[in-house]
């Protein structure tokens, strides 16, 4: 029973990161917003480690989309976390003011 509960908790916690990509056309920039592109940042945001260069590149690419992600309940917990602020700062990306 404990294994089932643990498995369910892990699934609930990780399911937003494996969900279908959230794509929204960003008319101001002409790029597509895709939360799945931020997958390289997940470990740094959830674990508090240093972001990889791939993470920083993806954050800069998806920067115009961060407010949209922050408003999405599936991603808001990640964008609004203290570790997220640290990762954004380490990558030189300003925290979004939505």
From TrEMBL:
Pfam families: Tryp_alpha_amyl. One of its GO terms (molecular function) is lipid binding. GO terms for biological process: lipid transport. Residues 33-98 form the Bifunctional inhibitor/plant lipid transfer protein/seed storage helical domain. The keyword Transport applies. Residues 1-19 form the signal peptide. Keywords: Lipid-binding, Signal, Transport. It comes from the Eukaryota. CDD domains: nsLTP2. This is Bifunctional inhibitor/plant lipid transfer protein/seed storage helical domain-containing protein. It comes from Brassica carinata (Ethiopian mustard).
């Amino acid at each position: 029973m404990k294994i089932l509960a643990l498995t369910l908790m892990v699934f609930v916690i990780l399911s937003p990161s494996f969900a279908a990509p959230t794509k929204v056309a960003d008319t101001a920039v002409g790029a597509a917003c895709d939360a799945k592109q931020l997958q390289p940042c997940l470990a740094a945001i959830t674990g508090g480690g240093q972001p990889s260069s791939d993470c920083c590149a993806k954050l800069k690419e998806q920067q115009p989309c961060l407010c949209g992600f922050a408003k999405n309940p599936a991603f808001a917990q990640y964008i609004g976390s203290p570790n997220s602020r640290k990762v954004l700062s380490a990558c030189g990306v300003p925290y979004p003011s939505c």
